[in-house]
Structures are given as structure tokens and as C-alpha cells.
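Same chain as my last thread, 251 residues:
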Amino acid sequence: MREFGLIGYPLDHAFSHKYFAEKFEKEGIENTKYELFPISEVSKLKNIIVSHPHLVGLNVTTPYKELVIPFLDELDETILKLGTVNTIKIYRKGDKYSLKGFNTDVAGLNKTFDELCIPEGTKALILGSGGSGKTLSYVLSNRGINSKNVSREPSSIEQLAYSKLTPSIIENHKLIINASPVGMFPNIDTCPAIPYNHISENHICLDLVYNPSETLFLKKCKDKGAKTVNGITMLFEQADKAWEIWNNSNI
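reply #2:
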């Protein structure tokens, strides 16, 4: 029996369990299961690995994408630039094990942006400065798109505060991405505090939240004529890439 799973807290919103359970059934993958591990502290990772000797791969979600790094033995080179992990491969030899971190969110975001066909010269606002925001900054930079992070508590001069978002900033940044958990189930009546009145039909608005499929953020942007997209493409792609990593004996 091979086991896979997801660590994070809380995991009420988890996509991975249903996705992989359906994948295993649809593709006839036997002797394999996927579990949720809602741990309140990242230090409990070791207990999970020791107590589940058949566990060979983990996904990582909020709030541990950055906090898990000190517990890993090796990092994929992309992590050194990103500083965030969403996939762990577990190597076992007898009762010993080692952990290697990867980030498949990059592949998920690249596929999402490929489908969006973003016009050349577009500038982006990233709502949120956590792990997802950092990954977005990296991916956008590699695609030649200038971006700014917006945070409730800016930690550097490169970040903007929500209270400082002027009409001209919104108008000059035609790609706006919610990389925060604001609006995620069950808090579906919340949305990032931006001046929506200055969103237009020239904007592309992406929400990495996938539950609900249309967040209040997306509804408000759609009402102003913007093109809106949720995070489901990213989720499917990052999950598929994680599966490839776990099953690649050469990694």
C-alpha cells in the first residue's frame, strides 16, 4: 500500500483528497490512498512520517508552505529562489527517511497564465504577501510582467498597503490577482478591500481561491466588466505535477 497526503491547518477546504481519490478510482490505481493531516504545528510532520511507514508523498498548504522548509533535507533548485514548498517527496531506506521539497504551484500558475493570454506590457497587483504571493511574483517576473504585492501590513517599501491603493494604481495594473485566503469558504461574504469602482472591462482578475468557484472578489470584478478566472486550472495542474514527481524514480 502506498500512501500520500496533505498537511496544513485547517483542511476543511481541501481539494486534494477528493481529486486524488477520484483519480485513483478512474485510472484503476490500486493499493494507494490519500489522507488529510490537519496538523496544528509544522513540527508534527515527523510524527506523521514515522507513524505512516508507507507514506511516500505529501502536498503542503497554508500555513506551512514556508514553515516546512527547515524540516526538509533537500530542496529543488526552484525553492531556493521561491522560498515556498507545496510538494514533498519522501525517500525511505529501512527505518530511515529523507525529505525533498518541490513547488508545483509554478507549473499550475504558468498554465493558468498561458490560457489567459495576457497582453504584453500588462502590470499586475498581487493581493497578499504570503507564500502564494511570493510564488506569483516569481512566475510573473519570469514572464516579463512587473508586479506589486499588496499587504495589510507591508514589510518592505516594495509592498503596498491596501489603504494606499489609489484609482490610478488600479487603472494602471490591468492584472489583479487575489493570492490571499480572503473570500474562501466558509467566509464567502468577504473580499479584499480594494477600490472596485476603478475595475474596468480592460482588467483581468484572477482569484487563486477555488471554493467557492466564484468568490465575492470575482463577482465584484465581473460586475465592472472585467474578465474573471478562478484557481481551478492551477489546482489541477499542480496536483498532476506532484503526482509526476512522486512517481518519478529519477528525481
